[in-house]
Every structure is written in structure tokens, then in C-alpha cells.
């Protein structure tokens, strides 16, 4: 929070928020690095040109979701704009908590809604066909690997690796440098931590959380095989402290040269290629590994939604148009560095010569991963709800977190995968029954 205070155009704690006039909006925002950059640039560039003051409340992801749910569900109007993902957007829209933004985007000639990558735009569109949020940045997942280490060992990364090929490489890369482990995968409990990459592995192994008619399948042979593979790979060739390691820990391990491979979000590539990274220029990028599916990369976007109860709708849109626009990407590139651009959302980004000059190592791989993501058909069987690394129902945040605790316990060696998934199946069956009865 102290860092946020120093960076922001204006930062205020939740208790100090208030409507200070028509030229002030309150924005609830997750504390990701890209958002910190946004704070740094707001006062000088957005407020100075529009006269609209922005009060930021910045919170860790779980705390953000709790506060956003409380305020938006009650339509209290404390926050005009909030950063939400493609998981919450269709759910919040269905509940009537968000203002549709498609018409405003269409009237805003400088925004260029058609430039947004189709999978990202679709993921923020509700069942009624209306767009309810605009993306700040988008991501998929891919395999990041030390191409110099593979080269020194005479190894080659396949153009489209399978998970079995990745496991074989991890065994050979383990110990390739002093203290280096073969691979880093999330083991930290959380529906947005361990459950995200694990679910993408489950999909490509032929598993699913639920069948189309709401039968829970968490301890099915396919789900079990995928989880055994994931847990076994981590226990055998994974990073130190795997049961507590999430995205941030794996990013740090890869940057510091402690692991040879990392399967995770495409958004991590910019940090790996930044000036602070010890491995900049040494990393290769391969598609998300597969088994039974043609692709397996996930789809995620942090986006901006406007609370329906907000009394500052025009100012809120001006903020979103600026923060999600082409000019903002160029501003970040020119002032903070092109590796910091909140990319993954616009086709034009991947035609920008300056962006490609600085981010060419991962730009094409990122765009290809996002463009090939299939949230409506991520596995080998029909699904009851959209989502690749999550199931698009309100109950999944709780279910996914509980199941991830069980799997993380198996990674730590405190129980078997079979026991972990048998417990998880009972939890999933409770959720499924509620939908079967509808």
C-alpha cells in the first residue's frame, strides 16, 4: 500500500472515499505491476488532459475480489470502476451489476473496439451479446525455457511439445547448472494459482471438472492421470518449496536462473526479458504443452468494468478508454519501457514496429497463444460452462481453492493424489447437484 501511495496520481484508503464532484472517480484495482505503472502515469497524462481526478484503492487479488463483490452486489456505488477478469464479467453482467460498454466503445472513434483480439473481446461479452468490460491486458499460457541450457546439453525443444516430452526434458535439465531444477509449476493453493495451470493440464489429458449434464468428474481416470502427472513432475523435478510457490515465486526462480523451464502465463515474458532479469535474451517460448488436444493455453484478461450504480458514467468511460487504448500502450513503451506494455489485447500491438523490436522474443508466441485459446471448447468433451483454466460459475472460486489445497497437500507429500481427488470429488458433487436440480 505504501508503494501504491507513492506511485499513484492519487491514492486513498477505502474509508476515505467519497464523491468529490463530477470530475472525480473512484477506481478499485488489483496490485499487479501493470497497474502500478498505470498509477504512475495517471495524474500527469490522464488527469492533466481531462481534468478527471482518479482515486485508486489498490488491493491484493483475493482482497480485491471480496471488496468488489461486496460493493457491486449491493450496488453501493462506492467504486465507479473496478479491475475484474473474464471470470467475473459474465457473472456480474448476468446479475445486473455492470454497465454495458459496447455502445460507448462504438461511439468512441479513438477507441477502436474492432482492434481487440477476438477471444479477449468474446470473453468479456455476456450471454445477452453485450460487452460489459474492456481489457487492460490479456494473457494465455506457454512454456518458457532456457534455450542456452538446452543448447549446451544438445537438447531441442519440440515445436509443439507434449507434456511427456516436457517431463523427459525436465529430467535431463535437472542439475544442468548448480542448484538448477528442471521446471517450475504453481503449487500454491488458490483457484487462480495452482488450479489454473493444473486445469489446463487436465483439459489436454482428456479430463474435465464437470460433464455437460453436470456430473462431477474430479476423480475420473483422466483427471487423476493429469493430477498424478503434475504432482509427480513437481515432486521429482520441480522447484524448491513447490507447495508454497505461485506465479510470483516461479517468475523469480526463472529470472534468477534457478529453473530451466516454466509453464505459466504469457504475461511473465515481459519480466523475463526486462533489464532486471538475469536471463534476458536467453529464454525461448513454446506453445502450452498438449496431450490429447490441439492446444491447451488458457485465456485470462484483467479488464475494467463500470458499476451500474455509478453516478460518474461518462468520466468512468473516459478513464477506461484511456487506460485500454492504443495511445496508452505507446505511452508506457516510450516512458517506462516496451517490455512493460500491457499487451495481449490488441491486434495493432503486434504490428507496432517499436513493440516488436523490443518484445520480438515473445510477441508472436503470445499472440498465437491468445488467438488459439478456446474457452468454449477447451477439452475433448462438451462443457456446461465456459472457461479453460476455470469453470465459469460463481461457485468455482470456492471449489477450485478447496480442491487446490488438497492437491497442494499431495505435492507436499502429506497425502496421495487418490485421497486428494476423492475428497475433491465430494466437494464438486455438491456443486453439481445444485445445477442438476435447476
From TrEMBL:
<dbReference type="InterPro" id="IPR006059">
    <property type="entry name" value="SBP"/>
</dbReference>
<protein>
    <submittedName>
        <fullName>Sugar ABC transporter substrate-binding protein</fullName>
    </submittedName>
</protein>
<dbReference type="InterPro" id="IPR050490">
    <property type="entry name" value="Bact_solute-bd_prot1"/>
</dbReference>
<dbReference type="Pfam" id="PF01547">
    <property type="entry name" value="SBP_bac_1"/>
</dbReference>
Amino acid at each position: 500500500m505504501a508503494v501504491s501511495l507513492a506511485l499513484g496520481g492519487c491514492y486513498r484508503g477505502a474509508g476515505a472515499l467519497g464523491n468529490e464532484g463530477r470530475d472525480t472517480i473512484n477506481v478499485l484495482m488489483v496490485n499487479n505491476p501493470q497497474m502500478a505503472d498505470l498509477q504512475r502515469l495517471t495524474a500527469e497524462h490522464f488527469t492533466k488532459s481531462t481534468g478527471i481526478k482518479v482515486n485508486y484503492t489498490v488491493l491484493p487479488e483475493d482482497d480485491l475480489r471480496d471488496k468488489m463483490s461486496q460493493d457491486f452486489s449491493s450496488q453501493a456505488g462506492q467504486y465507479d470502476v473496478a479491475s475484474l477478469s473474464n471470470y467475473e464479467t459474465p457473472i456480474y453482467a448476468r446479475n445486473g451489476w455492470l454497465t454495458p460498454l459496447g455502445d460507448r466503445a462504438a461511439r468512441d472513434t479513438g477507441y477502436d473496439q474492432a482492434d481487440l483480439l477476438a477471444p479477449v473481446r468474446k470473453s468479456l461479452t455476456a450471454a445477452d451479446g453485450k460487452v460489459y468490460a474492456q481489457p487492460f491486458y490479456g494473457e494465455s499460457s506457454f512454456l518458457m525455457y532456457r534455450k542456452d541450457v538446452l543448447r549446451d546439453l544438445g537438447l531441442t525443444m519440440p515445436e509443439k511439445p507434449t507434456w511427456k516430452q516436457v517431463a523427459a526434458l525436465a529430467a535431463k535439465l535437472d542439475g544442468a547448472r548448480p542448484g538448477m531444477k528442471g521446471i517450475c509449476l504453481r503449487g500454491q493453493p488458490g483457484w487462480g494459482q495452482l488450479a489454473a495451470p493444473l486445469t489446463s493440464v487436465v483439459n489436454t489429458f482428456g479430463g474435465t471438472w464437470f460433464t455437460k449434464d453436470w456430473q462431477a468428474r474430479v476423480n475420473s481416470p483422466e483427471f487423476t492421470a493429469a493430477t498424478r502427472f503434475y504432482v509427480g513432475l513437481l515432486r521429482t523435478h520441480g522447484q524448491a518449496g513447490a507447495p508454497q510457490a505461485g506465479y510470483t515465486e516461479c517468475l523469480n526462480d526463472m529470472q534468477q536462473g534457478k529453473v530451466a523451464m516454466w509453464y505459466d502465463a504469457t504475461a511473465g515474458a515481459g519480466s523475463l526479458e526486462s533489464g532486471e532479469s538475469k536471463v534476458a535474451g536467453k529464454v525461448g517460448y513454446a506453445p502450452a504443452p498438449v496431450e490429447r488436444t490441439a492446444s491447451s493455453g488458457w485465456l485470462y484478461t484483467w479488464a475494467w468494468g463500470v458499476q451500474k450504480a455509478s453516478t460518474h458514467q461518462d468520466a468512468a468511460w473516459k478513464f477506461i478508454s484511456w487506460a485500454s487504448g492504443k495511445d496508452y500502450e505507446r505511452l508506457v513503451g516510450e516512458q517506462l519501457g516496451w517490455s512493460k506494455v500491457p499487451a495481449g489485447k490488441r491486434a495493432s500491438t503486434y504490428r507496432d514496429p517499436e513493440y516488436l523490436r523490443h518484445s520480438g522474443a515473445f510477441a508472436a508466441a503470445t499472440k498465437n497463444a491468445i488467438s488459439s485459446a478456446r474457452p468454449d471448447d477447451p477439452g475433448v468433451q462438451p462443457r456446461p460452462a465456459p472457461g479453460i483454466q476455470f469453470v465459469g460459475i460463481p461457485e468455482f472460486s470456492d471449489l477450485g481453492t478447496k480442491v487446490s489445497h488438497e492437491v497442494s497437500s499431495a505435492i507436499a507429500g502429506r497425502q496421495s493424489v487418490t485421497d486428494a481427488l476423492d475428497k475433491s470429488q465430494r466437494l464438486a458433487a455438491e456443486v453439481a447437484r445444485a445445477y442438476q436440480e435447476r
